[in-house]
Amino acid sequence: MARVLTPQNEDFPRWYQDIVAKAELAENGPVKGQQVIRPTGFALWERMVAEMDDRIKETGAENASFPLLIPQSYLSKEAQHVEGFAPECWTVTHAGGKELEEPVVVRPTSETVIGESMSRWVKSYRDLPLLLNQWCNVMRYEMRTRLFLRSSEFLWQEGHTAHATFEDAAAYNRRILHEVYQDFMENVVALPVFTGLKTAAERFAGAINTFTCEAMMRDGKALQAGTAHELGQNFAKAFDIQYLGSDGKQHHAWTTSWGVSTRMVGALIMGHGDDSGLRVPPRLAPVQAYVMTVKDGEGVSEAAAKTHAALRAAGVRSKLNDRSDVAFGRRAVDAELKGYPVRLEIGPRDVAEGKAMLVRRIAGTKTQVSLDGVTEAVADALAADQDALYAEALKFREDHTSDVTTLDEAIEASATGFARLPWDACGTEGETRAAASAVTVRCLQRADGSVPDSEDEAGLVALLGRSY
Amino acid sequence: MARVLTPQNEDFPRWYQDIVAKAELAENGPVKGQQVIRPTGFALWERMVAEMDDRIKETGAENASFPLLIPQSYLSKEAQHVEGFAPECWTVTHAGGKELEEPVVVRPTSETVIGESMSRWVKSYRDLPLLLNQWCNVMRYEMRTRLFLRSSEFLWQEGHTAHATFEDAAAYNRRILHEVYQDFMENVVALPVFTGLKTAAERFAGAINTFTCEAMMRDGKALQAGTAHELGQNFAKAFDIQYLGSDGKQHHAWTTSWGVSTRMVGALIMGHGDDSGLRVPPRLAPVQAYVMTVKDGEGVSEAAAKTHAALRAAGVRSKLNDRSDVAFGRRAVDAELKGYPVRLEIGPRDVAEGKAMLVRRIAGTKTQVSLDGVTEAVADALAADQDALYAEALKFREDHTSDVTTLDEAIEASATGFARLPWDACGTEGETRAAASAVTVRCLQRADGSVPDSEDEAGLVALLGRSY
Ligand SMILES: [Zn+2]
Ligand SMILES: [Zn+2]
Question: Which residue ranges make up each domain of chain A?
Answer without folding.
Answer: 12-272, 289-387, 403-465
